[in-house]
Structures are given as C-alpha cells and as structure tokens.
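Dear support,

Our group has been running a series of protein-ligand predictions, and this particular one with 2-phosphoglycolic acid is the one our PI (initials K.S.) wants archived with full inputs and outputs. We had some confusion internally about which version of the output was final, so please treat the block below as the authoritative record. The input we submitted was:
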Amino acid sequence: MLVIIKKNYEEMSSEAAKIIADRIRKKPNLVLGLATGSTPLGLYKELIRMNKEEGLDFSKITTFNLDEYVGLPPSHDQSYHYFMYENFLNHINIDKRFTHIPQGMAKDIDMFCEWYEQRIKEIGGIDIQILGIGANGHIAFNEPGSSLGSRTRIKTLTEKTRKDNARFFKKMNEVPRYAITMGVGTVMDSKEILLLANGESKADAIRAAVEGPVTAMCPASVVQMHREVFVLLDKKAASKLKGDYVDTWEAKIFS
Ligand code: PGA
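Confirmed final output from the archive:
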C-alpha cells in the first residue's frame, strides 16, 4: 500500500490525474473504474484539461461506475448517470458505448447485477478503480457491515445516508431507498486501486482504513489486502495517521 500525502486538495487531484494519465498512455484501452461524490471532482476536471490541452486520448477507454440509486432515471439531476456525464464523460472524447453505470431503472435488478459483473469479467477486469471513502469507512454503497467478499447487488440505504442526502431532494420521500453497488469483492478484483480522501471529516475513516484492523465495520480497510493500492490524501485527511509515510513512491508509481 502506498500512502501519498499532498499539501491540499488541488495537489491531491493533480497527482491522481497524473497517475490515471500515465496508465492511459501505457494502455490506451484501459478499463477505468469511476466514482461519484465531491472527492474526485478535481481529478475529473484535471483529466478534462489534459484531454483538451494535451490530447490525452479516451477514445478507446472503457469505464465502469461503482454505483447508482434505484428508481432515478438518468435524466434526474441527482442520479449518478447525470453526475458522471455532467462532470466528466460529456467533456472528454470517450465513446459513450464503452461507458457503464449501473442501471437504477432496470426491471430485473438481480439479473442486471449479474450482467454487470459478467461484463467487467468479459472485458478483462478493471485496470484501475478510483474510490472515495465515506466518513464511516464505506466504499461505494458498501456501508459498515457489508461482506468483504460481496459482489454487485442491491443495497438498502441506511437512514443516516438517506438523511445526509435529503438536502439534494425536494422531499424526504423522494430520497431513494435502494442503490445498486459494486461489492467490496468486485472492487478488490481491480488490478489497481486509487483511494482518494481530503478534508478533516475523512481523517478518522482514513486512520481506520489504513492503520486499523481489516474489518467489515470499515469496508475501506479491505484495501490493506490488495497488492496494488495507492491511498492519495491531502494533509487534513492524513492528519490522524501514525505511520511514517516516506516519499519512496514516485519511482514506484510511474515504473
Ligand atoms: P464524497 O463521498 O466524495 O462526497 O465525500 C465519498 C463517499 O461517500 O464515498
């Protein structure tokens, strides 16, 4: 596990973009795992800039998103479809046929989840998965208590998560009750993982994930079992770590 601590959010984002761009240049048909949330927005912005100004080419890239709310159509401004197109996919030269986001409107959700897993496998697996982390240690919609071996499936949102998200909806009863999410096991099958976190509100979760025991009560802690993981943080998110994370990573990361 490589823990990389940058001064602030901007530096964290540009380092993350450098890693992704490096992987795309080495493998133009990279399979990229994407995440929603506020954390990767700076990374997406920088990748858009690299696409426009430096010709970073996404034309052969395939993407898979981690999760989506059940019951929200892609046109809903709180759907993760909408988020991804607005904040990233509409602004790069990607072939939309190669982008995958769980279908929250699928009629048969179990069948869809099986198809999603199958599709990832057929394409040869995810090369690098971008991850955020919840303040409670969740990854995607895998809340504490999720099986560390879980696969793509439907999950019930906790009341806490629904309340946290209520501000984005007109009424509480509009807040989705379910989501489709890649499982912890699905994420762990990615060849590389890039976990990003910034801000003080993530410091406890990062301490638990990086230095705590591996436990389903902090699903992000499972990354300790992965062979190729980068934990890229700003100083605030790293502020509760006790370990000494020396700067040996640059040679390794771009090797
Ligand atoms: P955030 O969400 O990036 O908006 O903090 C991360 C997460 O909940 O996984």
